[in-house]
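My current task is to audit a protein record that another person submitted. Thanks in advance; the entry in question is below:
***
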Amino acid sequence: MSPSFKSLLQRAGREAVRAVEKAIRTTTTTARSRTTAPRRASHSTTTTARPSSRDTRQIEKQSGYGQASSAGYAHGGEPSPYGRASARELNVAALPQFDYAPHKDGDADPGEVAWTWVPYEDIPEVGKDRPVLVLAYLGRDLVVLQMTSQDNTRDRAEEARHGRYWMDIGSGNWDSRGRPSEARIDRLLVVGQEAIRREGGVLDERIFNRVVAAVKEAHALGL
């Protein structure tokens, strides 16, 4: 074999070896890429599976958080738009001075029926716009009684079982349909003058005095 032919065979052998080595490196790199790809996908899936803040709020709601407000809304209630002037329950050892003093001056006065937001007793964060009977001044605020056109006196025993006591006060120009009204004598509320939406009419003075007497008796009995 001539030296030139032998040299040619050796060169071809080296090139063949380099080609095989390159092919092996390419195959190894591809295999590694295929092996690590699922790991990245798995990590991404784990990250997006975390609950959002909206999901968290839904979980809290299902757990019982905020149930009072939900129950209030279910009964047609809404938060008060009047802020700190809103009606709230009045719990005092001594009753204020009750004086019949209606005046058509644009402000609500004792003896007048007015409209304002009244909180639910069991869910005070929400309530409804209702008529109230103004009984007294308390500083710059008013002491009022919740009114209704529903006939609760037919179910006195049932209402009393739930701690609610009503008194008939008749009808007046505060109700456009002329329906008889009742006042709840065991629940005094205090409300700011700026939370009075409008005046609705004036109660007869004799009926006003009977309501005051009933309120005093209910207070004395601890109703």
